[in-house]
Structure formats: C-alpha cells, structure tokens
Design brief:
Radius of gyration: 19 Å
CATH topology: Pnp Oxidase, Chain A
Amino acid sequence: MTATLPDRLLEVFERSITTEYVTIDGRGQPIVWPVTPYFRRGAPTIDVTTGVGYPKKADDAAGNAHVALLFSDPTGSGLHDPPMVLVQGTASVDDRDLDANRERFVTEHSAKLPESRSRQLPQRVRPLLDWYFTRIYVRVRPERIYSWPHENPEQEPELLDAHLEEVRSGHNEEPEEPPPSPEGGGSVWHERLAQLGSRHPTAVLAVVAPDGFPFAVRVPVRADRAARLIRIDADPVGVPLLPGLASMTAHAHPPNLSWRRNFQVRGDLVRASDGWALAPHRVVPGFEAPPGIALRSRLDNVRKAVRYRRKAKVERQRRGRGSG
C-alpha cells in the first residue's frame, strides 16, 4: 500500500522520530506507547521495536496482529504543518535473529538521530544493556490510513484504504463487533494525571474500533480531579468512540530525543454530561529520561533495568538467541 501513498504521508513516516504505537492485549485492552518508527521509501512496512527485556509490545502484536500507529507529534521531524496520520495495519514479529536486530537497531537509530552517536556507550559496556540494545522488530503493514489536515481532530479526515472498494463506498466492509466492555469500578487518581491539560495540553487516546483494529487520535485534554475524570475537550471527526476499554498516553521530548517523559493511563471511555472522558483505573509510568535526570528517576530506572535484564535472559532462551 505504501507505494501508492502521496509524498506528504511518506515524509511523515520517514522523518518522524516518534509515533504512538497501539496494540490490543489478551483481554481486549488497547495499549498505546510512544516509540521510534523506521521506514524507507519502497518498503511495504513501517517498523517499530521494543527491547528484548520488555517484550510486551511485541507479544501483544503476536497475539493480535491488529495494530495502529499514530503520527501526531512532529517534534524533531523538521516538517511544517504536517497532517496527523493514523495507520491501521497488520503486524508481524521479527525475533528470529536477535543479534542481527541489535546491529540493525544501532545503525538505524544512529541514522535517524545522528546526535545520539555522541551519547552512545562504549562497545564494551553494551553487553550490560543487552536488554535495551537487543531488539524485537514489529513490522506493520498498512491496511487503512486516516489523515487529518493541520493535526486537527475536528476536521474531516482523508481515508486511504488497501481495499479500494471500501473507500469508494464510503464505509468499512470488515465485520463489526462490539468493543470490549468497560471494566467498571471506581476511578483512581495519581499525581501524574494533574499534568494533563497543563504540562501536556494534548494526549493520545486509543480505543478498539468495531472492526477490531485499534484507533487512536490526539485530543486536547484536562484533568478533573473532583470528578476523577480526564476530560476530552474535542469531538474528533471520524473516530468510532463508544463506551469501553481505552488508554491514553502523554509524552514529550526535544528534537534530538536527548530526554523524554511519558506515561500511560488505562481505564474506561465514558460519556459524560459535557462530552467524552476517560475514567482512569491505572497509571503506568514509561521508561523515562527526563531533563536533568532527578535522583528519583535514576532510582526508578535502575530498578526497571534490573528487572528488564532478568527478563532478557529468559527471552533469549525462547526466541532467536544469537550470541548474546
């Protein structure tokens, strides 16, 4: 499908340094995280990766090949006024040769972010970070693409589809199923949620569409602590919003990706009196490297690294092992 896409979309795929990657886990929960995309013109897939020490992004795609990539943050891309682009696609997981994947990742990451070369660790130290540098690739073959002009979710999106008859008929021929039922129960509150609407004026909302594919869109948000809700201050056009399981991610980074903040909220999408809202049930911090790297962040990352390193040893036993 990528061979027939207009240049303005191919540029987004090539030059973006982050995309919001959405999978669906075994219980039907959509899960969205920012990752770095890798794409070259002529390739049939847009590829993303996850470390062998934290393979859930790949495991979920192996369990349910319906995934999505949202390109909604042009920071670092050099693009002026790009569209917001959602790619719904089918995923295949590449973990046959983990050592080859590690070398590919180092090469591709350095090419995409040349400044990262100066921050790379010496070769002799990298085995200690095998859980990070050794990568599992997820190849996403686009099936359907939505493009919102000016990154405005309240404008009508353009639809490009691998099934041209669906574009002509103006509707989707995939069998429809009800979305995963809401989890229910009381909302939880976390200190990070107060950043929604302030430090993070927008966030990416992910749901499961009736055709079984994830659907994601960046929307303006604000935290309503009194009601224990995350208010969605937009009525996005073309987005199949229904009450059910949902997730949201907020993230920030500079153009050279020298630091990053990110976290995720999982909960229920609900219809409130003044529009849609997310009732949060769980807040999941990402693997962050914020500016300055405060002591608390350093300790959190050390704890995660120890856990990821143990996990990587187990994963190498059951996947393409390579030489370690």
